[in-house]
Design goal:
The chain has 13 helices and 2 strands. The protein is mostly helical. The protein has one domain: MetI-like (MetI-like fold). It has a two-stranded antiparallel ribbon. Keywords: Cell inner membrane, Cell membrane, Membrane, Transmembrane, Transmembrane helix, Transport.
C-alpha cells in the first residue's frame, strides 16, 4: 500500500518545481492585479482607496483605451495572418528542397532565437530614416519613409518586425506537419489528375488543420503579450499612440503614469479578452479541424 501511494505521488513531486514557478510568477501576480483593479493606489505605497468598479468605468469611457483596442485588433490580425501565411509558404518550399535542405531549414529557424526587443532594434535600424538601408532604398524609389512621424509607417514597421520574429516558430510546426503527411495520399491525388494547387488545398491543407489551429491559438497569445518588447524597442507606442497596443498601454499607465489601479484593471480586461478569444477559437474554429 505504501509503495502504491509513493508511486501515485511521484508525478506531483516531479511537477512541484514547475507548479511553484507558475504559482509565484503567474497566479500570485494575477491575483494581485485583480485586487489592485478595485483600488486607487499611491504609486509609492503610502495609501490606497477602495473604489469598486471606478477604474473599469474610466477605462471604457477613455478614448485612448478604445483607440488602443482598435490598434490591437488591426495589429493582431495582421501579425497572426502574416506570420502563419509566410511560414506556411516557406515550409512548403523547404519541404521540396533536396540539396542543402538542412541549411535552408536552419537559416529559417534562426530568427526565433532572437529576443523580441533585439528584433525590434534590428528592424528599427534597417528602417532608420537617416541610416537605414531599407529606408534608403525606399527613398531611391521615391517613397519617403519616416516612421517617427508617420503613424501608418510605424504600424507597418512593428507588424513586419513581429511577423519576422514569429515566422520561424510557425515554420517549425508547419514543416513538421508537412513531413508527417503520407506521400501515398499526394501520389494518389496526382494519379487522379489533381494538379499541385488542387493537391495542396484538397489534401495537404486539410491534413494541416490541427497544426494550423494550434498555431492560431499560439499566435493570438503571442500578439497580445509577447510583442511588447518589439514595440517598445521600435516605436515606443508612437508616434502619437499609433502603435500603442493594449499591453503597451498597461505598461504606460502603470510604469510611466503611475496609475496602478487603472493599469491593473486593464491587465484584467486583457486577460479576459485573450481567454474569450481562445474560448471562441476552440468553440467554433476547432469544429472544422480534421484530426
Amino acid at each position: 500500500m505504501a509503495t502504491f501511494q509513493r508511486h501515485r505521488l511521484t508525478p506531483w513531486i516531479l511537477l512541484a518545481p514547475q507548479l511553484a514557478v507558475i504559482a509565484v510568477f503567474f497566479f500570485w501576480p494575477a491575483a494581485q492585479a485583480i485586487v489592485q483593479a478595485f483600488y486607487i493606489e499611491d504609486p509609492f505605497g503610502l495609501g490606497h482607496e477602495f473604489v469598486w468598479f471606478e477604474n473599469f468605468a474610466r477605462i471604457f469611457t477613455s478614448f485612448e483605451y478604445l483607440r488602443a483596442l482598435g490598434v490591437t485588433a488591426l495589429f493582431s490580425v495582421s501579425v497572426a495572418v502574416g506570420a502563419m501565411s509566410l511560414a506556411l509558404l516557406l515550409a512548403v518550399q523547404a519541404d521540396r528542397v533536396i540539396h542543402g535542405a538542412h541549411s535552408y531549414k536552419t537559416l529559417l529557424i534562426w530568427p526565433y532565437a532572437v529576443a523580441p526587443a533585439v528584433a525590434g532594434v534590428l528592424w528599427m535600424f534597417m528602417f532608420d530614416p537617416n541610416l537605414g538601408l531599407l529606408s534608403a532604398g525606399l527613398e531611391n524609389l521615391g517613397i519617403g519613409w519616416n516612421h517617427r512621424v508617420n503613424g501608418g509607417q510605424a504600424m507597418l514597421l512593428v507588424i513586419l518586425a513581429s511577423i519576422w520574429k514569429q515566422m520561424s516558430y510557425n515554420f517549425v510546426f508547419f514543416l513538421a506537419g508537412l513531413q508527417s503527411i503520407p506521400k501515398s495520399l499526394l501520389e494518389a491525388a496526382a494519379i487522379d489528375g489533381a494538379g499541385p494547387w488542387r493537391r495542396f488545398w484538397t489534401v495537404t491543407f486539410p491534413l494541416l488543420s490541427p497544426t494550423s489551429f494550434f498555431l492560431l491559438v499560439m499566435n493570438s497569445v503571442y500578439v497580445f503579450f509577447e510583442t511588447f518588447g518589439t514595440i517598445d524597442a521600435t516605436t515606443g507606442g508612437g508616434p502619437g499612440g499609433a502603435t500603442r497596443t493594449l499591453v503597451y498601454k498597461v505598461y504606460e499607465d502603470g510604469f510611466e503614469g503611475y496609475d496602478l489601479g487603472s493599469s491593473a484593471a486593464q491587465s484584467v480586461i486583457l486577460l479576459i479578452l485573450v481567454g474569450l478569444l481562445t474560448l471562441l477559437q476552440f468553440r467554433y474554429i476547432e469544429r472544422k479541424v480534421q484530426y
